[in-house]
């Protein structure tokens, strides 16, 4: 991908990673991008860099515009290595006059790169930087996605360079949201929020309030991953407001694993009960669904049901995996129940409900465990559980 002007004299110079398939346990099955931006002003300024293996790709893009040695400033909006992995090489190559970062960014740069003599300049919320014709306003955005994260806002262009926030892991030849399928884009943005930012929803709420109070005039949001929001950027701000407020709809996600199909049969009977109540549902067998896709479906679901047979006095490891991952993301505003078959001891349901209680999921039933293979009556009990959860979802 070559350099691309996104606003007058501001260019995308990042890299597209078509091949990445895992991002810390998140299935990036459609790749990602590492967006970096170059402002060609009196002070030529690079906003973020890219992951280390993509250094040459970024340099190739920069060279289409200028000699990299002419870059005056680097703004480090975020120190995570997908955006600053090649920062040491860039500092060595271009010898910038100044490197701007947040107070926490300075600490993160020190502990990641142990630099000597880098011209670091700490900026805080409200600080500004003149590039010549244009000015950059900084806004610290702690925990979106790390303590060091910050936004760079350029009022002259109504451009918000938003670091991780509002991003998506999706590699495309297109750079703008109005060039791709809108529904698919929003599904990638939702997956990104669910798996990376759900845990920080209180911070997102505060940030959105701050942005409202500042009355920032925004007509483009350029995140560090994925597509740039050129058409109606308010739509992704509105989506973040809904997601961070844990808004749900009448939907359940039934997650299970099974040994000999008994727990699978229970899951299907539960779904018939949900269907009776007119609740939308997704059935997700852990053998064929990635944990990060399950979390995405849970994002806007009011109901969650988890099923596992008992193995070695506990649940199947796939269920422990997804529950551990979900617990870390701190979901809110959910109701649900557990279920599963067993042979002789039957502890899985108890362990699953324990996880659900720790997550604050409202249990509408103590859970159902069924010995070996479910009878018609057992499946009727599962159906009734589906009805019960469905009614709780509908409130
Ligand atoms: Fe895309 Fe938190 O790094």
Brief account:
This protein is of the alpha/beta class and 395 residues long.
Describe this protein's structure.
- By secondary structure, the chain is of the alpha/beta class.
- It folds into two domains: 4-244, Metallo-beta-lactamase, Chain A, CATH 3.60.15.10; 253-394, 3-Layer(aba) Sandwich (Rossmann fold).
- Helices cover 35% and strands 24% of the residues.
- The chain is built from twelve helices and 24 strands.
- The protein has helices at 55-63, 81-84, 87-94, 103-113, 182-197, 201-214, 234-244, 262-276, 291-299, 317-329, 348-358, 376-394; strands at 4-7, 10-12, 15-17, 22-23, 26-27, 32-34, 37-39, 45-47, 73-75, 98-101, 120-122, 128-130, 135-140, 150-154, 159-163, 220-223, 249-256, 280-285, 301-307, 310-311, 314-315, 335-342, 362-363, 368-371.
- The strands form six sheets. A seven-stranded mixed sheet has the order 1-2-7-8-9-10-11.
- A hairpin with a 2-residue loop joins strand 1 and strand 2.
- Helix 5 (182-197) packs across helix 7 (234-244) and helix 6 crosses helix 7.
- The longest helix is centred in the last third of the chain and has 19 residues, at 376-394.
- The termini are far apart.
- The model has no long low-confidence stretch (mean pLDDT 97).
- Bound molecules: MU-OXO-diiron.
- MU-OXO-diiron binds at residues 78, 80, 82-83, 145-146, 164, 224-225.
């Amino acid at each position: 991908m070559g350099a691309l002007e996104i606003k007058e004299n501001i260019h995308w110079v990042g890299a597209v990673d078509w091949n990445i398939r895992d991002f810390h346990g998140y299935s990036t099955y459609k790749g990602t991008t590492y967006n970096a931006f170059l402002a060609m002003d009196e002070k030529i300024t690079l906003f973020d860099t890219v992951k280390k293996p993509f250094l040459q790709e970024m340099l190739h893009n920069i060279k289409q515009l200028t000699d990299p040695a002419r870059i005056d400033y680097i703004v480090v909006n975020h120190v995570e290595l997908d955006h600053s992995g090649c920062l040491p090489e860039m500092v060595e190559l271009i010898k910038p006059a100044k490197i701007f970062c947040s107070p926490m960014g300075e600490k993160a740069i020190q502990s990641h790169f142990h630099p000597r003599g880098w011209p670091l300049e700490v900026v805080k919320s409200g600080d500004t930087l003149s590039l010549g014709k244009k000015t950059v306003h900084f806004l610290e955005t702690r925990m979106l996605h790390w303590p060091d994260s910050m936004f760079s806002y350029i009022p002259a262009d109504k451009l918000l360079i938003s670091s991780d926030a509002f991003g998506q892991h999706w590699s495309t030849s297109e750079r703008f949201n109005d060039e791709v399928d809108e529904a698919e884009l929003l599904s990638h943005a939702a997956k990104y929020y669910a798996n990376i930012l759900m845990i920080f929803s209180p911070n997102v709420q505060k940030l959105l309030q701050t942005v409202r109070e500042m009355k920032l005039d925004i007509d483009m949001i350029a995140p560090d991953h994925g597509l740039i929001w050129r058409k109606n950027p308010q739509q992704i701000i509105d989506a973040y407001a809904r997601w961070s407020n844990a808004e749900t709809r009448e939907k359940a996600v039934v997650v299970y694993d099974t040994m000999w199909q008994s727990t699978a049969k229970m899951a299907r009977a539960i779904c018939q009960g949900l269907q009776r109540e007119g609740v939308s549902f997704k059935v997700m067998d852990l053998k064929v669904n990635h944990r990060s896709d399950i979390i995405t479906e849970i994002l806007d679901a009011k109901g969650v049901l988890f099923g596992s047979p008992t193995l070695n006095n506990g649940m199947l490891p796939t269920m422990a995996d997804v529950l551990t991952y979900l617990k870390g993301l701190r979901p809110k505003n959910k109701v649900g129940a557990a279920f599963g078959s067993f042979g002789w001891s039957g502890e899985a349901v108890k362990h699953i409900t324990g996880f659900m209680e720790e997550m604050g999921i409202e249990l509408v039933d103590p859970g159902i465990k069924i010995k070996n293979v479910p009878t018609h009556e057992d499946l009727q009990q599962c159906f009734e559980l589906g009805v019960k959860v469905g009614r709780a979802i509908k409130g």
